[in-house]
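Structure ticket #2291
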Amino acid sequence: MALLFGAQPPAGADLIITNARIYASARSAPVAAMAVKDGRILALGEEALRHAGPATRRLDFGGAPVFPSFIDSHAHMRGLGALLESRDLRHVASVAEIAAYVKERASSMPEGEWIIARNWDQTNWGGAFPTARDLDDAAPRHPVFLSRVDGHAAWVNSLALKLAGITDQTPDPPGGRIIRDAQGRATGVLIDRAMGLVREKIPAPTSAQIKRQLELAARECARLGLAGVHDAGVSAEDLRAYRELLAEGKLPVRIYAMIGGTGPLWQEYLRKGPEISPFLTVRAIKLYADGALGSRGAALWQPYSDDKSNSGLLITPKESIEKTAREAAAHGFQVCTHAIGDRANRVVLDAYAAALGGANDRRFRIEHAQIVSLPDFRLFKEYSVIPAIQATHATSDMRWAEARLGPDRVAGAYAWKRFLALGIPVPNGSDFPVEEPNPFLGFYASITRQDSEGRPPGGWMPDQKMTREEALESWTVHAAYAAFEENLRGTLEPGKYADFIVLDRDIMTVPPKEILGAKVKMHFVGGRLVHEDR
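Resolution: structure written out below.
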């Protein structure tokens, strides 16, 4: 298609779409036509046809459904790019198979070079954490660093432990844990901030690597129907690469960037203020309150039901979160804090409350908001806090979540409808590469609360299912709202960006199982074709 990153036609509407089933929003009746001018929606329905000009391009979509492009409200772009360059260990069912992969990598790499991969999951082989010994024979001369699927634990070999100076006597760092065996020996699994003891020894990626990975991730997002991504935790190097890609015409998706932590980059932005533009916005900071449920690092009020000696890790104290929240509010920035456990969610809510004082339009967010004590849901409403959720986390975690939490706490877990019932917007996302980046998997999980095989019958905690309209809103207008962009995107209304996808099936009407196979036939961002399925 000539429109792929090409120049816009000069006169009349640039583009008129006809013979389509256009969902301008989740709750509006579909219309058949749409006109686009200068990258924005010009008109819908019969009115659109009146904007034809001599240079207008016309596309007949043959009755295909058209939706606003999806927005992933919590993801990690460089992580996705790195994953696309390596092997995804997400569904590997044994330690031996991962060791075999590491051995294969070692055989083709120079001695001493790091072997890095991600997404192992001990629940695939019964729940026991692996050990450094499982990797030592596979790669005795290569340090190995394998991230768990949630990104909150690392599995390393003995050489990596040695390079990091980790011995059996090394104390747990604040906000982290070195997993030890019954004799007190470090096993090779590191939780949360303990990961940094090894990670800091890994050579930093080059500027070229960062740029290549972000470009790979951006292309994949465009292919999957994502016109926007909230990149949760960027560095100065990431921003430099994004700007270069944008200048070269190689950034087909819009990035809403959260600064990763309170370091020099945050201090720089506090001095100069938010950066807002159509394809790269920096007006938020990403913090961490706790770890993840799968690696038992999520901070709970009471011990884990399946590990009575452990109640998780609080990574950042309330006082630090409150300090950053006050700074952000004073300088026009949003705070987005990772919180999984019920204790962590309350700590963040209390910190935000101290900084915000009541209802407001700061749109501070809690990323994940997975386990919330039932009385605390009202605090999200009281302090205008947005829960940024990831629907596929529920269907990935449902295999073991109740074993971690017990029957009482699980009532407030992954409880999206409790938020919606209070009138709280619920932006959806994937947390890729923790989960797969395909947004239709998240749409399916939102409305079924089932895995791809339809288990369990009726869905897990079915009272928390979204309707299709709610699910579509969570992936479009709610995600836009969470980035202060609801007047620019999220629906296909005149004046908004012409970000839309053409699908091979109507996800609002097909049987739920068929949503899993939905394909993006065409994707337009700002009226320009950024992907076509040939």
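Closing remark: Residues 164 and 201 are 7 Å apart (CA to CA).
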